[in-house]
Design brief:
75% helix, 146 residues, 0% strand, mainly alpha
């Protein structure tokens, strides 16, 4: 999915790619939350959801990484990349803690609800980016030399 995400990030509006992939993640978590809330959640629902989250996360990560130079001034790109890495690391640490805190009761539904809401917010926020998020079109030297 990472290679596919890189190809997509090179061909389309990166901001919209991030939005669509976050929307897929929000939908996956929302469906799992609803099934859990209704008492209908089965193991295969979790497997499908994890697959969707993994694929959408890989594609979204490629697009987000490619989007950074369009949003941040050139001299600040290294700092922005570092901030992205730190943010990802903090999320990887805090997400299990938040999951634990929301699953202290009898149901997993609150954890899935928190995940769905966070993905909904992550879907909406890139819509406020006003930078040019389209990839630069370059001439492929191998195609022109033929």
């Amino acid at each position: 999915a990472i290679l596919f995400g890189g190809v997509l990030a090179d061909e389309m509006d990166r901001r919209l790619l991030v939005v669509w992939m976050q929307a897929v993640a929000a939908a996956a978590c929302g469906v799992v939350w609803l099934l859990s809330f209704l008492g209908l959640l089965l193991p295969w629902h979790i497997y499908v959801s994890v697959g969707l989250l993994s694929a959408s996360g890989s594609i979204e990560g490629s697009a987000r990484d490619a989007l950074t130079p369009a949003v941040v001034p050139q001299k600040l790109v290294p700092r922005a990349v570092s901030t992205n890495v730190v943010t990802d690391s903090v999320g990887e640490i805090l997400a299990p803690v938040l999951f634990f805190a929301t699953t202290l009761g009898e149901s997993l539904s609150p954890a899935f609800a928190v995940a769905a809401v966070s993905y909904i917010l992550a879907t909406l926020l890139p819509l406020f980016i006003e930078a040019n998020c389209h990839p630069e079109k370059t001439v492929d030297a191998t195609r022109t030399s033929q």
